[in-house]
Structure prediction request, 462 residues.
Amino acid sequence: MNRLVVASNRVVDPECGPGAGGLVVSVLEALRNREGLWLGWNGEIVASEEDLSISRQNFEGITLVVTPLTEADYNEYYLGFSNSSLWPVHHYRLDLAKFTQESAEGYRRVNDRFADMLHPLLKRTDLIWAHDYHLIPLGANLRERGVNNAIGFFLHIPFPPPDVLAAMPEHGWLIDALLQYDLVGFQTSVDQANFCRFVCEFLGGKMRSQDTLFAAGKTLNTGVFPVGIDVDAFISIATSPEAEVRIERLYRRGESRVNILGVDRLDYSKGLPDRLRAFKRFLELYPQHRKAATLMQIASPTREDVQAYIDIRRELEGLSGEINGEFGDFDWTPVRYIHRLVSRETLAALYRGSQVGLVTPLRDGMNLVAKEYVAAQDENDPGVLVLSRFAGAAEALEEALIVNPYDTDEVAQAIQRAITMSRDERMERHQALISRIRLGDAHSWSKKFIHALEACRCCTAA
Prediction:
């Protein structure tokens, strides 16, 4: 069995235990099975390149190779090009994208450094798996260093339409870099189609099959590999005795409450202001639910040094205060807005104790919250998932109430439908959803991608 080498922006703590997400658990499992190596940033920041160091750690058969970033790296590679250029463009938000030559050079510099770190550690038969938008050029950098191994890349975020990507100043060399991989994986068929369209329309590429491109003198395999969760592990967390205690606390404020839950990182792609406006519209359209329905919106901090995130936090705080001021009463707070990290154990209990899961991003690669909400439900009395059509999860989770997050009336009406849905219909929808989630769990995701990458190697050898 070939060794697996994973490269990602961050390397997680392997001792994270049951609190880790299913995605991390899946990657760790694949690395353990193949005595793998995981390379990336350790989360630390040092003053200058003179302070950089490389450390290695062995954990349960996995070799972890990590390095800090310099302050310049953090500002240019991470906050700059990755999160102020690539992130907004890939989420169709050109209006929020910022491009500077310094940030692009920082992005190239860090990817070059990762390639320099990884190259001497590679064996001839290794399978190399690069992850996400931070490391798009890594495969090309390794090719420049003479690496002929099978190299795969998986994009965890959306891939934009050709006309959106073409407006980005640095798009040319990024696409050229993607063409150096043997396999490029996407979350949804829409993302895959956008990438293939760009290569064909702008670079003269040709489709050899549904998943195979010929461009720049070589064949490139593409595929759709929807990320999943560790279903059984999450169910175990949601049904623990500790979770039962947390769920009971949700109902102490009254007997006939309707708990509506949103869980997101504080990011403009999540549509949080639109969600609060839709909840306000719900209270206007259906006044019978006033003093009964509460929206708890958890928005965990992220990238707080980026101005766009500072702005959206202010907007959310203003909106929640506005709704509570207009509709709230002495014994009822319509919106409970929480801006801090919440443990997975607490989230699992909140999912299970909420009648409606409101997952309405404006654009998302997958959105595992939607799948976690479904997994946490009581199968005999499940809640209802209201899901944006622009979340990657919507491609598979057909039995959710699919909505346009830009249409406040449609979302408000979906909340009403979810609250009033019969128990039989809720159970029928939940049974179908949990079956779909089990079929595409985190373990199958990593296995399918690695199998596809191995198949690329076989074809290349042939």
